[in-house]
Write a structure and sequence with these properties.
The chain is globular. It has one domain. The protein has a 3-stranded parallel β-sheet. Strand 1, helix 1 and strand 2 form a beta-alpha-beta unit. The protein is of the alpha/beta class and 90 residues long.
């Protein structure tokens, strides 16, 4: 799941679904950490308001690492072929 800080993102993260959450750097959501402390299945990506394309670019360029992280962060126990979610990812 990739989302801004919305109720949907909170529900997904709370259910243990790997969630990439984006928001302003040093958001109060992070409580001074790099991620969201109460949702271990959440990865935080900083949003730069002066560069709106930055978040999608970061996610696309780091997709293989995100997919590996999501495999570890997921609590569902399901095997997921992440290559299907982003064509061209190896």
């Amino acid at each position: 799941m990739i989302s801004a800080g919305t109720a949907t993102a909170e529900l997904c993260a709370g259910l243990g679904i790997p969630t990439v959450l984006f928001g302003l750097k040093h958001s109060q959501t992070q409580l001074g950490t790099d991620d969201v402390p109460w949702h271990p299945a959440t990865r935080f990506v900083s949003l730069d308001p002066d560069e709106p394309i930055g978040v999608p670019r970061s996610i696309l360029f780091d997709w293989n690492n995100i997919a590996r992280w999501a495999e570890q962060a997921s609590v569902s126990g399901r095997q997921i072929d992440w290559r299907l979610s982003f064509p061209g990812a190896a």
